[in-house]
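Here is one chain, start to finish.
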Amino acid sequence: MDLYWAVVGGANPVDYFNKYPGRFELWHIKDKKEVGASGMMDFKSYWANMAKSGLQYGIVEVEEYDFDQFTSCQKSIDWLNHQPFVVMPK
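Its structure:
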């Protein structure tokens, strides 16, 4: 699931996790700019429902850049790494 585009389209990813448990093994983790920058994404609730979603792998993407692409991706990864709720499945 592309979390950002689900939200932009008016959906809540958690609703899909509940309706179709285990079907979202890949997440495209992104935001309007760097991950965590816009405040429009409720990443905490997505991770709270990670097991229900079926997450196995996360793919960090940046939709629009405030910096060069490498810096933007690094800032996104750094933000995720500093969030206490972000864990990845083993």
